[in-house]
Amino acid sequence: MKKLLLVTLLLFVMVFSFGEKIKVEFWHAMGGGHGKALEELVAAFNRENPYVEVVPVYVGNYGALSRKLLSTVVAYNEGTRDNLPVIAQAYSNWTSKYLQSEGIVEPLNKFIYGDSEFKEVWENQIYKVFKDMCTWGDTIYSIPFNKSVYTNYYNVDLFDLYGVEPPKTLDELYDVAKQLTEDIDGDGQIDQYGLGFRTTVDDFQTFLYAMNGRVLDYAGNGKWKIVLNKETTIKALNFMHKLKADEVAFVQGGYLNDPFGNGQIAMYMGTIAGKPYVEKSIKGKYEWTWAPLPSVDGVPHSPIAGTDLIMFAWADKAQKQAAWMFMKFLLDKVNQAYWAVNTGYVPVRKDVVETSQWKSYIANDEKPTIALNSLKTAVPDPKPAAWYDIRNALGTITSDFLYDKITAEDAYNRMIEEIKNLLVENEELAE
């Protein structure tokens, strides 16, 4: 640790002597309030570290960031060395894609384990589910950044009016959805659905995980094993279809914050990142909160959403050290509390609950604690390079099934075929 600090100090003294700051360009997709919170953290870091200038560059949404990063990696491999970021947000499957080329993503083990104080934080304070998403074999290639879990959004006023509790099991989910579904004005059309869900891969995964199903397991050496069980998959699909066919659930492809806000649905399962949109849609018309996701065993098996931060190997030595300082700064306990309080994302380290900021945050609001508790049994997404395309394929198949274009068995067979083909195409399928 002393050697690392000495090298860092010498680098900064040398840079300062020549009158130049170490510039660290940071590409991200945080807009709106999230972007403002990020800019505040960057400004605080730059004030505390006058020899470094972290320059945040808002690229656009995740799709735009993904395209720009991939084109940058391709251009770098072809010899272009201009306009390169030092760090960036990245989903773990993006990182897997970059790892297919040598010399793109910087391993972080030497930074993490070269600092005894931070090593203790990494090993004992960062949630395991996040570390799993940042690690390939024995190598750590990223740190967790903006993370969210899925919870059950529900209308407290309606639940109280009907005398029902948030469902803990899938049987209870169906029963509560049925109780809360009504043709209120008697015109033969349902005005209030007990549940809403989307025809997307995210909702399919939520129901699949609720039944203890999984899609892929890591087999080592960059290879993945397909573990999508036929019986469980068909059961999850049929349960979704029954909710729709029995007209106890409102189903669409788009986001559900507006139907929830206008009272068209009484509950839905979604990521906590949707909180500001729900608040905007509700406009204080009624009380709402979160509950843990229901499942077959009554234990929430929440998917994890959100990105990590990666460092690029093409940066020079001083930039890498400065970038690590910033990454470490973002993982500081107090800064994690600031980030969580101001964005709604979950903190990625356990001891944030000890901070005064967090204690004030939860004093009159149970929602952050509900979300944080879900991490104990949360499920990380698989991270093959093919995962983005796999997700798209599974989403299309789920939608086709729900709208009666194919049978559940056809859906399962298509899922297996698509997953296999995409893994083979990326040379990621385990033998």
UniProtKB/TrEMBL annotation:
It is found in: Cell envelope. Its main location: other. Pfam families: SBP_bac_8. Transmembrane segments: none annotated. Keywords: Signal, Transport. InterPro entries: Bact_solute-bd_prot1, SBP. Belongs to the bacterial solute-binding protein 1 family. This is ABC transporter substrate-binding protein. It comes from Marinitoga aeolica.
